[in-house]
Known about the structure:
The complex is a heterodimer.
Chain A: E1 11-19, H1 25-34, E2 47-56, E3 59-68, H2 75-78, E4 87-93, H3 97-101, H4 103-113, E5 119-125, H5 137-146, E6 150-153, H6 162-178
Parallel strand pairs in A: 1-3, 1-4, 4-5, 5-6
Antiparallel strand pairs in A: 2-3
Chain B: H1 2-25, H2 27-30, H3 34-41, H4 46-57, H5 59-65, H6 69-80, H7 84-91, H8 107-122, H9 132-140, H10 145-157, H11 164-167, H12 172-188, H13 190-198, H14 203-206, H15 208-212, H16 221-234, H17 239-249, H18 251-254, H19 259-272, H20 278-294
Helix pairs in contact in B: 1-4, 5-10, 6-8, 7-8, 8-9, 8-10, 9-10, 12-13, 17-20
InterPro entries (chain B): Rab-GAP-TBC_dom (IPR000195), Rab-GAP_TBC_sf (IPR035969), Rab_GAP_TBC_domain (IPR050302)
GO molecular function (chain B): GTPase activator activity
Domain Rab-GAP TBC (chain B): 43-235
Amino acid sequence: MSFQGPEEYDYLFKIVLIGDSGVGKSNLLSRFTRNEFNLESKSTIGVEFATRSIVVEGKKLKAQIWDTAGQERFRAITSAYYRGAVGAMLVYDIAKHATFENIDRWLKELRDHADDNIVVLLVGNKTDLRHLRAVMSEDAAEYADRNNLIFIETSALDSTNVEHAFQQCLNEVYKRVADRHFSNVNIGQTTALPTTNLQSTILEKKFCCNS
Amino acid sequence: HHRHHHHQSKLAMLGRTKKWLKMCENWSVYYPSEKLYRRVYKGLPLPVRGIVWSKILGTQKLVTDNPGVYEKMKMAGRQWCLDVRQIDLDVNRTFRNHIMFRRRYDVKQQALFNILVAYAMYNSDVGYCQGMSQIAALVLMFLNEEDAFWALASLINGSRYKMHGFFIPGFPKLLRYQDHYNLVLKKLMPKVKKHLDKHEMFPSLYTLKWLMQCFLDRIPFSLTLRFWDIFVLEGESVLIAMCIVVIKLHRSQIVKMNMDELMQFFNDDLCRSFAADDDVAVASLKNTIDDLRRLKLHLPPTTPESELLERP
Lengths: 211, 312
């Protein structure tokens, strides 16, 4: 019997990446899941996801990370995918102030469509554009503080803090799950399949299905 | 031997180009005709693709009927278009791997920007919607700026294509097509559908670019061009058929994949390693179009008025 199958994990956590168009959501995702950055990346239309597993306190957490279109019109389609998400990365571009100003609206989107206990990170991306910085770290940190968000700055281009951002998000989700914060999801249910359509995104798996 | 073969295919291509030029000179004789249809399915030779698309899309007539309109829309768009930021962002991410669009703010990138801001003015119900930049860039590869604008207008407003409903807020046509595709899939390949459903790979997750961008970025570029030749000729009635063909040609792979693998397959693998070469895929498309027409499944139920542009 082998336990090395790709489907083996203890928890499946659904995380959503949201924020204005062009802030680097897709590259944050590809940097974390495949260690890739694409200068010619195409705009995401609708939703896509990729996964990566990490180990926290001896538990294997599989993160299923959903990347969404930034253009406002697509929220009609994408907001359905917030359902069941236990973590969210709210991304803005540190070199474009307007993308930071819009964070309020994205936060409202989350409050309207996602679980109340969702872990939310405020992510200032593109720190490699030092000379073009338009959003001060202090301002963003203060905003995060006021709204109970975890704040971090990243660069998908040079990898700075990307790993750390996702780790922090998953750690926090794990902590809340361990403390049973997510009351409306079925923890402890054993299922062979990852699930997206979730009243139950947090799936605890005891053993591998393809044994 | 290889050189000989290369020489021969070049000759064949020249021969086909000549035939097409002859048809273009006597367009009213050949269009529409059985012969022209057959030749479109064989694929348009590169040197005539622009001319033929333009003729079928009725670009010239639109240019003559609307003198000065493009210039006016372009100027208005540069001043008033609310989507300039989004358009500029997307021009920066459209076909950057193509020689024409590689250099930032180069001629073709400027033309693409102009067309999109002008169109947003011309059709304010649609404005600018992501997905349109890919289509506009494709026609710009074969047509000059003003012709490309009217070609885009024909694709979005023309009664044969009606892409309008794909791009307006709420995306009514997209949802309607996804529902219909799901129904056809259930009828023709119930096992594959069951597998996809089991892994929660619903049509909403993978058919968006298939439908809104007519397969741009989702299948190999050479096959996309072959499909577009047929799409320009036949119109929206071949979209569902192409969706079915993509699944049909890969069904033995698909039924072995889990959710993660399926996502990767639809997003990345398909455009790099399509299971069939272009001729085989087009032959399969031809058969599927015929089958679906026979079954009256090639189109979803009639287009509601609300999905059409009222007045351009």
